[in-house]
Amino acid sequence: MGIKAGNNLLLPSFAVRERCKDLILSDETIAELMRRIMKDVEKGLCKDTHKEAVVKCFITYVQDLPNGTERGEFLALDLGGTNFRVLLIHLGQNHFDMQSKIYAIPQSIMVGTGEQLFDHIAECLANFMKEHDVYSHKLPLGFTFSFPLQQLGLTKGLLETWTKGFKCSGVVGNDVVQLLKDAIRRRGDIQIQVCAILNDTTGTLMSCAWKNHNCRIGLIVGTGCNVCYVEKTENCELFDGNTNKPDCIVNTEWGAFGSDGALDIVITEYDREIDENSINPGKQLFEKMISGMYMGELVRLALVRLTKDNLLFGGKLSDHLLKRGNFFTKYVSEIESDKRGSFLNCREVLGELGLSHATEQDCANVRYICECVSRRAAHLVSAGIAVLINKMKEPSLTVGVDGSVYRFHPHFHDLMVEKIKQLILPGIKFDLMLSEDGSGRGAALVAAVACREN
Questions:
Q1: Is 339 in the active site?
Q2: DSSP secondary-structure letter at 428?
Q3: Strand partners, 249
Q4: For residue 230, what are the β-bridge partners?
Q5: What is the DSSP letter of 327?
């Protein structure tokens, strides 16, 4: 049974806490994970081991951060999920004006051909330019493409693998900038100069660096999870560009960490089930333990397991709860937003799931399960961020962060700050900065910096 704490709050039951122990990471486990992440990052950077590296550490060829002198009119294209955005951005002195529009990508296109996908994007781009009276302008464009990309230059990137439900044929192994240019040329009605292709982590870093020149890491904790950071060019053995510049942003693609067994020390039955039922079994295991695409499902699997074992809801399941994907990640944020001792949101969520028979004790248990899953996610991310902060050895830096989990979960920021503090070397100062529209604004800034260079 649960017990009342001294301040009259209902605690999760002893049995539920015991069953959730494998979702809690010990200090020793985190230290071991940090060693493994560091080893994998070094493997990805090294020419001899890159091929078999799990954490690819792709070179982005972005070597300059914004310095405030960027001026002009730029387009940005942001493709990273089931929607994509087109943006028109005006940069002036300390002035940023942005107009954007979101376009849907139908399921049929997500799993159709690459040509269909890029024709759809080009059509939306042309419509957007008509609507904003820039149809006849030749504008520089920054292209945020938030999928694993091997970059061969600032405007050339080969798709490594699709993620997030995409499976368009004829794109993996090909240059996505060229595919976009081909689609624009097939239309023949708009003129665009693609200045840069980047990933949303790079966009986040650039967007924050425009305001805060101290930003050295770009992190996404949303539908997916990935990070980029500023590395010394001399450590980027695969870099094939201007070696006179000291730094280069590296896109780690750390969501893939663990596909070689490195996460086996923390993987639970729920993680294994998520992986087995995903469209990419055996891949992106780190991401599957953290990101918004999976967090709600992890909680659902735990709830189902504990109900079957008669530890929740009087052993009575609902059809809703039994259906895969029905416990949305936003439910986790809502349940954890309840004031301590109140289960207002929790009851509402359980009602939607056909579990109105839940007792107060059930609500306390459900909240605890949500907390275990989200805290584990925050601690895994923090371990990785601490590795990069310790590697860079900057006395003070900012981590730019974007993504729905970080943005909307009520405690994610605080959990990260607290854990990173414990894990970084003494004397280093850091702060976490919420990115304002990194994937859009950042794309335009990369294009603007590239134009500044020319």
A1: no
A2: -
A3: 230
A4: 249
A5: S
275 included as an active-site residue:
no
Taken in order of first residue, the domains within the chain and their CATH numbers are 12-59+211-436 (3.40.367.20), 61-198 (3.30.420.40)
Residue 33 near residue 266, CB atoms below 8 Å: yes
Taking the CA atoms of residue 373, residue 374, residue 376 and residue 380 in that order, the dihedral angle to the nearest 10 degrees is 140
Residue in 172, 303, 163 with CA at minimum distance from that of residue 225: 163
Q: How far apart are the first and last CA of the chain?
A: 69
Cβ neighbour number for residue 427 with a 10 Å cutoff:
7
Considering the candidates 56, 164, 288, 419, report the single residue annotated as catalytic.
164
Nearest to 271 by CA among 229, 263, 279, 364: 263
Q: Give me 74's structure tokens.
A: 């730029």
Contact indicator for 305, 270 with CB cutoff of 8 Å: yes
Q: Which residues contact 318 (CB under 8 A, 6 or more apart)?
A: 353, 354, 355
Rounded Cα distance between 194 and 178, Å, is 10
The bridge status of strand 72-79 relative to strand 191-198 is unpaired
Evaluate whether 295 touches 327 at the Cβ level (below 8 Å). no
**Distance (Å, rounded) from C-alpha 239 to C-alpha 278?**
34
Tell me phi and psi for residue 243, to 5 degrees.
Answer: -85, 0
Q: How many CA atoms lie within 13 A of 22 on its CB side?
A: 13
Name the nearest CA neighbour of 289 among 388, 405, 204: 405
The catalytic position among 200, 271, 402, 437 is 200
Q: Is-contact 141 74, C-beta < 8 A?
A: yes
pLDDT values of the chain reduced to their tens digit, one per residue, 454 residues: 454 444 458 999 999 999 999 999 999 999 999 999 999 999 999 999 999 999 999 999 999 898 878 888 899 999 977 788 999 998 887 677 889 999 999 999 999 999 999 999 999 999 999 999 888 888 999 999 988 888 888 999 999 888 877 889 999 999 999 999 999 999 989 889 998 999 889 999 999 998 898 999 999 999 899 999 999 999 999 998 878 899 999 999 999 999 999 999 999 999 999 999 998 899 999 999 999 999 999 999 999 999 999 999 999 999 999 999 999 999 999 999 999 989 999 999 999 999 999 999 999 999 999 999 999 999 999 999 999 999 999 999 999 999 999 999 999 999 999 999 999 999 999 999 999 777 788 888 888 888 876 5
Contacts of 279 (CB under 8 A, 6+ apart): 165, 167
Indicate the SS3 state at residue 152: strand
Instruction: Determine the residue type at 39.
Output: K
Distance in angstroms (rounded) separating the CA atoms of residues 224 and 207: 19
Query: For the whole model, what pTM was predicted?
Result: 0.90
